[in-house]
Design goal:
The complex is a heterodimer of chains A (242) and B (197).
Chain A: H1 11-23, H2 27-42, H3 50-71, H4 81-93, H5 100-113, H6 117-128, H7 139-149, H8 158-180, H9 183-205, H10 234-238
Chain B: H1 2-5, H2 24-31, H3 35-55, H4 60-77, H5 87-105, H6 108-111, H7 122-127, H8 133-140, H9 144-156, H10 160-166, H11 171-193
The chains are: A mainly alpha (242), B mainly alpha (197).
C-alpha cells in the first residue's frame, strides 16, 4: 500500500472496544467497588511492605557495624571511647564472647605507648578488677601518684615509663593466669602486680627533675620483675606508698 | 493548541450511565467530604478505569482489581485536589500511576498479556458484545506506553496539555509521542485488516 494513502482509522473501533469493556462492568459492581473504596478510605488497611522494613533493618545493622568498627580503636579519653565501650557491652550481653579484660590490657599498652601513664595504669586496673588475688593490688595508689606527677610542664622519666610498662605486662599476666584457671599462677601474678604497683608509686614520687638524662645501665632493682632504672633499687625495696 | 485539542469527538464521554466527567460542583462537594457525591463519581469512574486497564492489556480480573485500587487512591487524594476543574486529568494521572506501580511491583511480562490469545477468563469474550478482534490484535502490536497515550487521547479525550502536565512532560513531546503511536497503531491496524496489501 502507498504509505501516503489514507488507511482505515482504528480510533472509532478503539472507542467501541472501550465502550464494550465499560459495559462488561455491571452498574451494581461499579457501585459495590465505589462503596468498598469509600469504606477502605474510612478504615485504611495497614499495608505491610517487607522491602522498606528489610532495608531499614539493613541500614541500622550496617550503620551500627560501621560505628562499632570506627569506635573500636578508640582509647580511654577519646571521643568515641564511650561508643566502643557501649558496643563492647552489647557484645558481652549477647554472649558473643567479648574478651573485655584482654581488650583493656591492649588499651593500657596503647596508652602507655602514647605516654598516658596514669590512664594506662587505670585501664590495667580495670582489666584485673574483680580477679582473685588482684584486689588491693595498689593500682589506685599508682594512678594517684602518676596523676600527681603528671602536672603540666613536668616530663615523665624513662624509668617511670619502664615501671608502668612492667605494670601493664604484669596485669596482662594476671589476666592470662585467670584464664588458665590455675589459682597458684593467679595469686603469684597478682603478688607481682602488687609489687610493681608499689614500684610505680615510688618511681612517680622520686622522679628525677625534668631535663636530666636517664641511665639505663645503672644498677638493678631488688624487685626481680623490674629492670634496672636510673633511680636505683633501694627506693623500690624500701617499698610502700609514701 | 490546547483549545483545538478538545474539538475531537469523544463518543465514550457522552455514553456513560452516571455522567462523565463529573461536574465542577459535584467534584467540589466530593472533595469537601460529600460521600454521596464521591460515591457517584467513583461508580461512574470505576468502569472507565477497568476499561482503561483492559485496554492496556490487563486481564479483566486484574483490571478490575487495579480499578478498585485506583478508586481508593482517588478517595484518599481528592481532598488535596486544588482545582476541581482539573479533576479529570488528575483522575487519569492516578489511573496511570497505579498501572505503573503495578508494573513495577510485578514483572512487566507477567502482567501485560496479548489481547488476542487466551489470557482472559473464558467468560470475558462472551460478555463483550462484539469481538473487536482487529483492534485488539492491532493493540497487541504497539507498546503499553503507546496504548496508554492513545487511550487517553482517543478514548478519554484528554488534551495534550492535560496528558503532559500530569506526567511532567512538555505538551510538544506528548504530541510527537502520540503522532508516532498513531502511526504505529494505524500500520498495525492496516496489517490486521489486510487493507495495506
Amino acid at each position: 500500500m502507498n504509505p501516503g494513502m489514507p488507511g482505515p482509522e482504528p480510533y472509532e473501533e478503539l472507542r467501541r472496544l472501550a465502550r464494550s469493556y465499560e459495559q462488561d462492568v455491571p452498574a451494581a459492581s461499579a457501585r459495590r467497588a465505589a462503596a468498598a473504596a469509600l469504606m477502605a478510605a474510612k478504615h485504611p488497611r495497614r499495608r505491610f511492605r517487607l522491602a522498606p522494613v528489610f532495608a531499614s533493618f539493613l541500614t541500622i545493622i550496617a550503620g551500627n557495624a560501621g560505628l562499632a568498627l570506627a569506635a573500636d580503636p578508640a582509647l580511654p579519653g577519646d571521643l568515641f571511647y564511650p561508643i566502643d565501650r557501649f558496643y563492647e557491652r552489647v557484645v558481652e550481653l549477647t554472649g558473643l564472647g567479648a574478651d573485655v579484660r584482654t581488650e583493656r590490657i591492649a588499651e593500657a599498652a596503647a596508652l602507655h605507648a602514647k605516654g598516658q601513664l596514669a590512664l594506662a595504669v587505670a585501664t590495667a586496673g580495670e582489666a584485673v578488677a574483680g580477679l582473685a588475688g588482684a584486689e588491693n593490688a595498689g593500682l589506685t595508689d599508682a594512678v594517684a601518684a602518676l596523676n600527681a606527677d603528671a602536672a603540666p610542664g613536668q616530663a615523665l622519666t624513662a624509668a617511670l615509663h619502664e615501671e608502668t610498662n612492667q605494670l601493664v605486662d604484669l596485669a596482662a599476666k594476671v589476666v592470662e593466669a585467670a584464664k588458665t584457671g590455675d589459682p597458684g599462677d593467679a595469686s603469684e601474678a597478682a603478688a607481682e602486680l602488687r609489687k610493681q604497683a608499689a614500684d610505680v608509686v615510688i618511681a612517680a614520687q622520686d622522679k628525677e627533675p625534668p631535663g636530666q638524662t636517664t641511665d639505663p645501665g645503672s644498677p638493678g632493682t631488688n624487685n626481680p620483675g623490674t629492670p634496672p632504672t636510673d633511680r636505683g633499687s633501694g627506693q623500690s625495696a624500701s617499698g610502700g606508698n609514701q | 493548541m490546547p483549545g483545538q485539542s478538545r474539538q475531537r469527538p469523544n463518543p465514550v464521554r457522552s455514553a456513560t450511565a452516571f455522567g462523565w466527567p463529573p461536574g465542577f460542583l459535584e467534584v467540589e462537594r466530593a472533595a469537601h467530604g460529600d460521600r454521596t457525591a464521591l460515591h457517584e463519581i467513583l461508580a461512574a469512574g470505576y468502569p472507565k478505569l477497568a476499561s482503561f486497564y483492559r485496554g492496556l492489556g490487563l486481564t479483566r480480573s486484574d483490571a478490575e482489581d487495579l480499578a478498585a485500587d485506583a478508586c481508593e487512591a482517588i478517595v484518599g487524594g481528592l481532598g488535596r485536589l486544588r482545582d476541581p476543574a482539573a479533576f479529570e486529568a488528575w483522575f487519569w494521572a492516578i489511573a496511570r500511576n497505579r498501572f505503573r506501580g503495578m508494573l513495577r511491583r510485578r514483572r512487566h511480562d507477567s502482567v501485560i498479556e496479548p489481547m488476542t490469545v487466551p489470557g482472559e477468563l473464558p467468560g470475558d469474550r462472551l460478555e463483550t458484545a462484539e469481538d473487536h478482534s482487529e483492534i485488539r490484535r492491532a493493540l497487541d502490536q504497539v507498546s503499553p506506553r503507546d496504548r496508554e497515550l492513545l487511550w487517553l487521547r482517543e478514548v478519554v479525550g484528554l488534551s495534550y496539555d492535560e496528558i503532559a502536565n500530569r506526567q511532567g512532560a512538555a505538551a510538544g513531546a506528548v504530541r510527537v509521542s502520540l503522532h508516532r503511536a498513531r502511526r504505529r497503531l494505524e500500520r498495525a491496524y492496516r496489517e490486521v485488516t489486510g487493507s495495506d496489501s
